[in-house]
């Protein structure tokens, strides 16, 4: 297993784009903060909120779709893949899945909704992109 090294440029961490060369892309900035109902013990101590960053396309390639949307008779239903969602969440907040398993169930549901909103573009964007 290879380890990934993260670089910093100013205050934003840089993530290697390709492990075979030194090309890097800026890590996304946090777009949402979710307050937790109880503290979560992490490798660096307790946290009372999670900062979520916009996911990169690589998360879809690495983890599959975290949810599918089904529309029938005007009703919208979400079919979640919770294992993929947890890996997306790990990518988006920087805590590993082992730590995130300690979330209270109601906190997980709140965070899952926030992740869904970010992926769908309902949260975290100042402008909606337009096609020209």
Number of helices: 4
Secondary-structure element order, as H and E? EEEEEHEEHHH
In helices, the fraction of residues equals: 25-40%
Give me the secondary-structure category.
Answer: alpha+beta
User: Which strand-content bin applies to the residues?
Assistant: 25-35%
Rg (CA only): 16 Å
Average pLDDT taken over every residue? 79
Biggest beta sheet summary? 3 strands, antiparallel
Spans of at least 5 consecutive residues with low confidence: 1-17, 128-132
Query: How far apart are the termini?
Result: 43 Å
Order of strands in the sheet with most strands:
1-2-3
Principal-axes geometry comes out as: globular
Q: What is the total tally of β strands? A: 7
Describe this structure in words.
The protein has 132 residues and is an alpha+beta fold. It contains 4 helices and 7 strands; from the N terminus they run E-E-E-E-E-H-E-E-H-H-H. It has a 3-stranded antiparallel beta sheet with strand order 1-2-3, with no helix packed on it. The chain has a two-stranded antiparallel ribbon with strand order 4-5. A hairpin with a 2-residue loop joins strand 4 (30-42) and strand 5. The radius of gyration is 16 Å and the shape is globular. It starts with 6 loop residues before the first strand and ends in a 12-residue tail after the last helix.
Features:
single chain; 132 residues; alpha+beta; 3-stranded antiparallel sheet; two-stranded antiparallel sheet; 4 helices; disordered N terminus; disordered C terminus
Task: Set out the fold topology.
Blueprint: E1 7-9, E2 12-16, E3 24-26, E4 30-42, E5 45-53, H1 57-63, E6 67-72, E7 75-80, H2 82-93, H3 97-100, H4 105-120
Antiparallel strand pairs: 1-2, 2-3, 4-5, 6-7
